[in-house]
Amino acid sequence: MSFNDTFKALADPTRRTILDLLKERDLTAGEIADHFQMTKPAISHHLNLLKQAELVVNEKKGQHVHYSINLTMFEELMTWMLKFNSNEGV
């Protein structure tokens, strides 16, 4: 598995803040945008990069798209990182 997109997405402080917001609850793009002083297209760009990195998933509910954290990707990332602590795979 390649984590290149994941690490690229995590490198940006805005995207990390978005993940912190989604840690609390699922949000729409508009609700996420309310926490930032940037354009909605800029927030959409950040969300698309998080989706490409499989860190978030989205689901259309009525007229709104709700974003949530993809826990599976975080579990895979943590499993990979923990290998360094346990000397597995070395």
From TrEMBL:
Record keyword Transcription present: yes
Stored InterPro entries: ArsR-like_HTH (IPR011991), HTH_ArsR_DNA-bd_dom (IPR001845), HTH_MetalResp_TranReg (IPR051081), SdpR-like_repress (IPR047796), WH-like_DNA-bd_sf (IPR036388), WH_DNA-bd_sf (IPR036390)
Domain of life: Bacteria
Keywords, sorted A to Z: DNA-binding, Transcription, Transcription regulation
Classification via SMART domains: HTH_ARSR (SM00418)
Keyword Methyltransferase: no
Domain (HTH arsR-type): residue spans on this chain: 1-89
PANTHER family tied to this protein: TRANSCRIPTIONAL REGULATOR, ARSR FAMILY, TRANSCRIPTIONAL REPRESSOR SDPR
Protein name, per record: Winged helix-turn-helix transcriptional regulator
Source taxonomy: Bacteria, Bacillati, Bacillota, Bacilli, Bacillales
